[in-house]
Structure formats: structure tokens, C-alpha cells
Amino acid sequence: MAAADRLNQTSDILSQSMKKSDSTASIVTAEVPYKVAVVGSGNWGTTIAKVVAENCKENPQLFQERVDMWVFEEKIDGVPLTKIINTKHQNVKYLPNIDLPENLVANPDLIETTKDADIIVFNVPHQFLGRLTHQMKGHIKPTARAISCLKGFEVGAKGVQLLSDYITEELGIECGALSGANLAPEVAKEHWSETTVAYHIPKDFRGEGKDVDHRVLKKLFHRPYFHVNVIDDVAGISIAGALKNIVALACGFVTGLGWGSNAAAAIQRVGLGEIIKFGRMFFPESKVETYYQESAGVADLITTCSGGRNVRVATEMAKTGKSAEQVEKEILNGQSAQGLITCKEVHQWLEACGHIDDFPLFEAVYQITYNGVPMEKLPSMIEELGLEEDKE
Predict the structure, then answer these.
(1) Considering the entire predicted model, what is its pTM?
(2) Catalytic one of 244, 277, 319, 377
(3) Domains in the chain: ranges and CATH
(4) What residues form the catalytic site here (predicted)?
(5) Is 244 noted as a catalytic residue in this protein?
């Protein structure tokens, strides 16, 4: 046999071996398939529920097929929304014209939805989280795990707290986070995008095949049109996911004023700096590289500042002079612009700990939104940032 032939044969054997090894490595099973539930049925909640239900059906060795989605019951033309979802298989109010998997079951009872779940995915406006976790206490499996898709913080006696940590403390279950450059309508239409899931393996991890780990979460969320990277920096992606909405409001202000792409780019540059500074100052366990390497970081910032609820609300505020509350009510069809709440929470925290001057953009957005400061003053309100950084 010629040397070239031997080389080609060896290469073929190695290639086949690697393919076989890769195939084996990709097989993930559970001793008892995990039951998955989704809490929340808005635009993004229904989209994530669609993703999850598709994967649960395709991976019976790992997940139970039926996925329950808790829906805040309301009537559409006199018909309960849950009934419409379960018969028409579309969420006609919050995600119209998108077909949902038949194994996704809308449930108006929060306790029934979550009581037997092994994995609970939270996807509601974060101002409602406290009320929901209060109802769930004592009614979920103590071995359950959770993923938060919420954007924002809990600010209280304990200071500023990640919502994933809040869920862990309130319910006694380990909670990770999902965040990325994901506009819900595009994901729902199966246009390719990517996201980041962060999950820290807890000390009481029960072992492979018995408990949720990174491979299980990859199987739960990864789709051909929705690529997932799983990491352990829960703090980093949570911070980026929450604070980018404040930056998006600022981008909406300059867009509505007609100042163009240069102004929007400047806002994003300053905003990214404040996001990183906030993480390093208050959550030192977060990793700086997460903000620029992961979809949950700069990619999400760019996407959110070019579209989405917060930009739309702020742009309309600038064009019409209407209040944030009025615009939100008029254009979001019952949904929330989370940046409006987050900028208030961040202001309260920075004021309490004496760091308002370290975050001029975040403070400017708060003052414009809640105290009627003219948007035209935004450049002068943030121009001292560079000087402050030079002093450090």
C-alpha cells in the first residue's frame, strides 16, 4: 500500500472514530425524564415556551413531552386566552400568527403548572415576581431547578440583588439565567439567532442523569434556529440583560430627537462602560469577558438599542412629549418596557450607596424619565464620564 493511501486510510479511521465519539458525547439521558414548566406567557415567555416544548418533544429520553405554561387568564372577545391557546395553538394576543407546539399546554393555575416540575423557566415582567414566588412557596418540588429569563434587579433591605438569586432565596431552588440578543418575534419566526444560558452547578448536585447540568440545559434551549452557549457566569449575563434596557431608553431618546446613528453609537459606548463598571463594583464575581464575548453582552446591547420595546417607548416619548407610562400603555399591548422600572431601581440603589455620580448615563435616563429633565440635556449630563474615568 502506498504511503499516500495509508495516510488517507488512517485519516478516514480517525475521522470515523471522532464522529462516533462526538455522537456518543452528545447523547444526554435522564433516569426519569424531567418535567418542564414555563411561568409567563407574554411575547418572550410564549416564544421561549415554544422553543422548550419543541425540544421536550424531540428528546423523550430527557424530558417529559408535555410542557405547561402558566398564563395570566384574560378574555379575548369573550373567550379565555388559555382556551384559545389550547385549541388554536396560538397566543393571539401576545404572539399572534405563530403556531405553537401541541404539547405546549396553557394553564391558568400557577400551582398546577409548577407543582411537579423539575425545571421551571421564569419569564414574566419582574415587578410581578415577588407575588408569584410567594404563591409558589411550599408547592414546588424541593429538588426543582430554575432558569430566569427576567430582566432587572430586586432592590430592598439586602441591597441590589440578581433576580436569579432572589428566586433561589425565595423558593430554595438553584436558579440560572438566560439572556441574549433575542428579539422575540424573530426567534418565534425561527430566524437564526443565539443566546446565553448561565447556570452554576449547586453543591447538592445529585449526579449526571439525576439532576440538571449544562448539557441538559443545552438540550432544553438549543434549536437549529436558536443557538445556545452555556456558561457559569450567572451574574454577568443577568447584569448585562438588565442594564441594557436602560441604555436602550437613552438610544430611543436620541433617535426620537432625530440625532441619528452617531448619537446612538455614543450612547451605546458609554452604556457598555457603565454596565461593566456596575458589574465590577457590585458583583465582582461577574466576568468582564462575558460582556463582550457572549450574546448576552454587547450583542444584546446592540440588538436592544436598535429595536425592541424600550427603544420604541423612548422614541415615542421624544417625538410626542408624552410620559413613559402613557406611551407604554398606548403602544405595547399590555406588555412592559422593563428599562423604565430598572432605571428607577438602579437610581434607588446608587442613591442609597452614594454612587450616582459614577453612572451619569443611568442617572440621566432616570431624571429624564421620572423628573421631566429635557432630553436635549442628555449629552451635557454624561460628558463628565471621560474625565471621571481619567481620574481613576
Answers:
(1) 0.87
(2) 244
(3) 15-232 (3.40.50.720), 236-391 (1.10.1040.10)
(4) 244 (proton acceptor)
(5) yes
